[in-house]
């Protein structure tokens, strides 16, 4: 799919929606200098093109009691289709894994995991992830403090 051709209005709309997706069409239009109808059409076009794929509420993990944040590098025992499918399924089924990427280098995956604390994270690692029998090695990096957290992409 070729990228959507965006002009300055589209980019301003995207920047504002990434900051606050609850803006009304009227407020959004006023902020970017358009009338509501053209603004709505632009948003709709970006949604239909898949550029805007959804709207969510960003929840404060610490306020939920999820004080532990860790990045886990994982290397699988083998790279068979069955092993990869099983590990990917495991990732999809566990809500404490909030991000997962396949990566280059010595490891196969990098997971971003949240938990109530170190003990809960250890339980996840030992009793769930390593118990799969698919992981050759894992390295866990605890985040001490998040210096930056954003979901906004540079537009």
From TrEMBL:
InterPro entries: ArsR-like_HTH, AsnC-type_HTH_dom, Dimeric_a/b-barrel, Tscrpt_reg_AsnC-like, Tscrpt_reg_AsnC/Lrp_C, Tscrpt_reg_HTH_AsnC-type_CS, WH-like_DNA-bd_sf, WH_DNA-bd_sf. The keyword DNA-binding applies. Residues 6-67 form the HTH asnC-type domain. Keywords: DNA-binding, Transcription, Transcription regulation. SMART domains: HTH_ASNC. CDD domains: HTH_ARSR. It comes from the Bacteria. SUPFAM superfamilies: Dimeric alpha+beta barrel, Winged helix' DNA-binding domain. Gene3D superfamilies: 3.30.70.920, Winged helix-like DNA-binding domain superfamily/Winged helix DNA-binding domain (1.10.10.10). This is Lrp/AsnC family transcriptional regulator.
């Amino acid at each position: 799919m070729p990228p959507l051709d965006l002009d300055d209005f589209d980019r301003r709309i995207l920047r504002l929606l990434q900051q606050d997706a609850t803006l009304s069409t009227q407020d959004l239009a006023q902020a970017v200098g358009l009338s509501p109808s053209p603004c709505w059409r632009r948003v709709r076009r970006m949604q239909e093109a898949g550029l805007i794929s959804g709207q969510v509420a960003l929840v404060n993990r610490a306020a939920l009691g999820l004080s532990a944040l860790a990045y886990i590098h994982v290397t699988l025992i083998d790279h068979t289709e069955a092993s990869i499918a099983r590990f990917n399924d495991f990732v999809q089924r566990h809500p404490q894994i909030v991000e997962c990427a396949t990566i280059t280098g010595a490891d196969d995956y990098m997971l971003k995991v949240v938990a109530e604390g170190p003990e809960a994270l250890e339980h996840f690692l030992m009793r769930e992830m390593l118990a799969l029998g698919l992981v050759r090695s894992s390295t866990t990096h605890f985040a001490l403090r998040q210096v930056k957290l954003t979901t906004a992409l540079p537009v």
